[in-house]
Amino acid sequence: QVQPVESGGGLVQAGGSLRLSCAASGNNFGGYSVGWFRQAPGKDREFGAAIRFSGTSTLYSDSLKGRVTISRDSAKKTVYLQMNDLKPEDTAIYYCAASNKYYSSDSYYTVEETYDYWGQGTQVTVSS
């Protein structure tokens, strides 16, 4: 069992960058796919990005594609979300989640129900 722990959130001006980290507590992410989701005030939580357990497949939402990169360190202890050209609409709590379920289709890794282990979230605020 693994417990994701997020860090790296903060306040940044529009156009700036942040790198979020998701550390594996209690285990490493070997055998787990890891996703980043976000929840803006008054909105439902939505998918942002994911990296499948193999580390070779990455997925991005349309709203973040081209501005973010998800990656994993070689020790499989930390997953990163590098976010560039941030916009005020990116303001949200960002959650990291892990799943040891296997699906052949990438699309399953864009839905919350696939993930069993969730972090507490880290706040990202982008000022205009």
Please outline what is shown here.
With 128 residues, the chain is mainly beta. Helix content is 0%, strand content 47%. Strands 2, 4, 5, 6, 9, 10 and 11 form a seven-stranded mixed β-sheet that branches. It has a four-stranded antiparallel β-sheet with strand order 1-3-8-7, with no helix packed on it.
Strand segment tally = 11
Spans of at least 5 consecutive residues whose pLDDT stays below 50 are none
Number of helices: 0
- The average pLDDT is 95
- The dominant shape is globular
Query: Which structural class best describes the helix and strand composition?
Result: mainly beta
User: What Rg, in angstroms, do the CA atoms define?
Assistant: 13 Å
Strand content: over 45%
Sheet of most strands = 7 strands, mixed
Helix percent band: under 10%
Element string (H = helix, E = strand)? EEEEEEEEEEE
Distance from first to last alpha carbon: 40 Å
Explain what you see:
With 128 residues, this protein is an all-beta fold. The protein contains no helices and 11 strands. It has strands spanning 3-7, 10-13, 18-25, 33-39, 46-51, 58-60, 68-72, 78-83, 92-99, 117-118, 122-127. The strands form 2 sheets. Strands 2, 4, 5, 6, 9, 10 and 11 form a 7-stranded mixed sheet that branches. Strands 1-3-8-7 form a 4-stranded antiparallel sheet, with no helix packed on it. Strand 5 and strand 6 (58-60) form a beta hairpin. The termini are far apart.
